Amino acid sequence: MKLAILTPTIAPLTSIGGLGDVMRDLPKFLKRNGNDVIIITPDHNGKISNLPHAKTDKLKTKYKGIDFEFDVIITKHPTTNIDMVVFSNKDFNALDTWDPLKYDIFADLVVSYLGKYPVDCVSGHDWACGLAIAKCHEKLNLPTTMTIHNEAFKGPIIEYKGLVMPFLELGIYFSDAFNTVSPTHAEEIKLIDYIHNQSKIKPYHGIINGIDFETFNSTTILNRMNTLCNNKLDPKKYAFTCDYGAEDANIIKPKIKYAWLADRGISKYVEAWNGMDKQLISGTDVEIYGELNNKQKERNVPLFGIVGRATHQKGFDITIEAFSELFEEHDIQLVILAKGDERIEKNLADFAESYNGNVMALIGHCMPLSSIIYASSDWTITPSLWEPCGLVQMESMAHCTPVIAREVGGLKDSIISLNPDILNNPNFHEATGILFKNYDKVGLMWAIGHALNWTYYRIEEVCMFLEYSHGNCPKSPYEKGSPLNNMMKNCYNHVFKNLSWQNNDSADKYKALFGGAIYTHTYGKI
After folding, report:
1. Are 243 and 187 found together in one domain?
2. Structure confidence at residue 299 (pLDDT)
3. Tens of pLDDT along 245-288?
4. Are 130 and 176 contained in the same domain?
5. What are phi and psi of 339, to 5 degrees?
6. H or E segment at 206?
7. For the chain, N or C: smaller number of CB within 10 Å?
8. Which residues lie below 8 Å from residue 78, measured CB to CB, with a gap of 6+?
9. What are residue 402's phi and psi, to 5 degrees?
């Protein structure tokens, strides 16, 4: 099957959120499954044209009476080696990544290109590709699919073929099959009118995302950090860093925590990162607000970490509310890495400075540091208001770090929750995190308290109720056989066995989705 994957962004070149990571990895595993795959994307800020490439054609298009000419660039993705078709124009490239004008013109360029080089199926991702999917279906009569990565963002409303709809809804309407990125989220949004109506006449599925375990796990942390900074910053020069696995996570993770946070290794790294040329990578400068005091050197102070886009969806409001009270009750610390909405960025910076010593906020986009946050933290937090899938929880668990999250969407599908009544129903042998239901500070505070109780405070009490494989009960959170140590191992193994692109069969399900689209396109609606 010859497939064209349309994407607005792709890691590590033009990406900030998880969409770019999925668009890097999914084509790789579709190709491994025997498909002929090309990626089609814009040349944001000219970053992709900085790679070795060939200019194979020029495409002309007109927008509101103005003529535009684009170079068609053919190159290879730098880490997956998948063929990329990129449309480049200096003025077009300089527009904001999410400017709707880009994707109005992008749709016509896709049609022009695929008119010359047809494929068996066109797969569009996110609202930005919705109009392109509609036009590929209508103008080229090609089978199409549309993937909803976040239905809250639909793009601008336009008129096309007598329909007045946002980009995303146009893509769904004209697609031959569509999906979203987790089974639970597929059910959560199925009652939305435009999704419900289309799901009755064409294939609709929830296919969970994954991560590439070959390149993203705790045993590859050094290589990943070097790759994400284009081999310019060796993390070992700034603080203790080494690869580790499920069996030695309890030994290595505390050392990374002390070195990068207590000994200020992270500050040295940020200074070097900010001075680095970022033309060949995705990233921004980072500003540091607040710092963590030296309690980590004196004793094991629980560290919670957050990595994510600074948007309303991600739950930063209830995080600030919850930790403002938790700091009064518990000796804990929090480190945040975020970039996005300026108002939320300011709130996080003010929060860190108000609780200086307990909170460090890293405001910026620096993917190498995400690995350090995962590796350093005892728990990560993803208290999202909604979450179609989410990759943070998978990435955290791949670094042997359990996750506190809301029981929604892909978070529910990917985290095995510690039972609420742990003494009567212990599941330390399988739990990879804690799920809570209500979106408020009370729910989040309960989950954090539950985590502290059973991985820090009440270890000896747990020992009274559980049988350990050795004679002595663990006394430290990091001791072998402790609840936290067991959960570290569970996290790593769960991601490898169930959540990696290598093993979760999601690439096979996408291939089936494309087959369903071709069938529907050829023989009519279901």
Report:
1. no
2. 62
3. 999 999 999 999 999 998 889 999 999 999 999 888 889 999 99
4. yes
5. -155, 135
6. strand 204-206
7. C
8. 12, 13, 51
9. -70, 165
Contacts of 202 (CB under 8 A, 6+ apart): 175, 176, 177, 178, 520, 525, 526
Q: Which amino acid is at 33?
A: N
Give whole-number Cα distances, 288 to 284, 348, 363, 525, in Å: 13, 11, 6, 54
For 379-427, write each residue's pLDDT tens digit: 999 999 999 999 999 999 999 999 999 999 999 999 999 999 998 888 9
* Buried-state track 46-83, b at ≥16 Cβ within 10 A, e below 16: ebbbeeebeeeeebebeeeeeebebbbbebebbbbebb
Structure tokens at 496: 């490898």
3-state secondary structure of 334: strand
DSSP 8-state code for residue 246: T
Task: Give CA–CA dist 307/305, Å, rounded.
Answer: 7
Q: Which residues neighbour 489 within 8 Å (Cβ) at sequence distance 6 or greater?
A: 246, 247, 249, 400
At position 483, the amino acid (one-letter code) is P
Which percentage of the chain shows pLDDT scores above 70? 97
| Residue 384: strand, helix, or coil | coil
Integer Cα distance of 84 and 6 in angstroms = 10
Residue 381 belongs to a domain with what CATH number? 3.40.50.2000
253's enclosing H/E stretch is helix 249-257
CB-based contact 35:153 (threshold 8 Å): no
223/217 Cα distance (integer angstroms): 10
Place of tokens 């987790």: 182
Measured distance CA(283)–CA(20) in Å, rounded: 13
The residue range of the domain holding 309 is 218-499
Angle between helix 483-494 and 249-257 (nearest 10): 100
Tokens of 378: 């005892």
Q: What is the residue whose two structure tokens read 């050795």?
A: 470
Question: Are 303 and 349 within one domain?
Answer: yes
Separation between Cα atoms, residue 316 and residue 408, nearest integer Å:
16
Give SS3 for 219.
helix
C-alpha–C-alpha distance, residues 286 and 308, integer Å: 14
Q: CA-CA distance, 270 to 278, in Å (whole number)? A: 13
